[in-house]
Specification:
Blueprint: H1 9-45, H2 53-66, H3 73-92
Helix pairs in contact: 1-3, 2-3
């Protein structure tokens, strides 16, 4: 039995499926960023606070409630906290605010 996973057709199929998912996730992240930028412009125009910590908490709680696994709640919360933090850095600069 060969230990070269690169020549394993099953591993290749699974990797292709993972790449397809990652490609879709990337497109969704970019769309999310465009929406956040749009919201940010709206907030500036109407002099709303740039960051809404309560909304972030509601988002994380809602996503944890919607999670039906196999990811556990800490995984879901951690992934989305990372996404929100990275988005704020992208939109507002290194400080994220």
């Amino acid at each position: 039995m060969s230990s070269d996973i690169d020549s394993d057709p099953i591993a290749g199929e699974i990797r292709a499926a993972i790449l397809a998912n990652d490609t879709e996730i990337l497109a969704l992240l970019n769309e999310r960023l465009r929406l956040v930028e749009q919201l940010c412009r709206h907030k500036v125009e109407h002099e709303y606070p740039s960051v809404d910590v309560k909304q972030e908490a509601r988002l994380f709680d809602r996503l944890v409630r919607l999670n039906d696994g196999p990811a556990d709640d800490d995984y879901v919360r951690g992934v989305f906290e990372t996404i929100v933090t990275a988005t704020k850095r992208q939109v507002y600069g290194p400080s994220g605010e």
